[in-house]
Amino acid sequence: MPLVGTSSSGQFACATDAQHTLKHLRTKRKGQPVFVLGHLLDRKGREATFESFNDRLALVKFDDGAILGFDPNELLLPTDIDASGTAYFEIRPCQSCDIFFPLTLAECDADEEPAQCPDCRR
To answer: pLDDT tens digit string along 19-73?
Structure first.
């Protein structure tokens, strides 16, 4: 079962080459900003915050107070979180497999953005 608690840095996580979804985080922290790719059309493409786990589903809370469960693979991490705690998401579709993935801060600042998700680049 995934761990829930404060990360070792005490901060919320951003996308890296090794972690780009909530599932990739070893330790999940309540309030972690996520971008929902999930199966519910009215919630797809919206930002939310991680609350906790219920069995194998990650419960996330939306701005309207709704709490819904999603597969942790459907929850993308932010590209950056500024000093005031606002999360920024730069989400792109992979040109090879057509799934969405978040850019890392380094990829966002690079001269040329990657056209493929981290899995297809390997």
So the answer is: 999 999 988 999 999 999 988 889 999 999 999 998 789 999 999 999 999 999 9
Query: How far is CA 75 from its chain centroid?
Result: 5
Residue with tokens 């922290």: 29
| pTM metric for this prediction | 0.87
Q: Which residues of 92-118 are buried (b: 16+ CB within 10 A; e: fewer)?
A: bebeeeeeebbbbbebeeeeeebeebb
How far apart CA 47 and CA 112 sit, in angstroms, is 26
Distance CA 60, CA 108 (A): 26
Residue 82 tokens, joined:
């500024």
- Note the pLDDT of residue 10: 59
Both tokens of 112, joined, read: 């040329």
Cβ atoms of 22 and 75 closer than 8 Å: yes
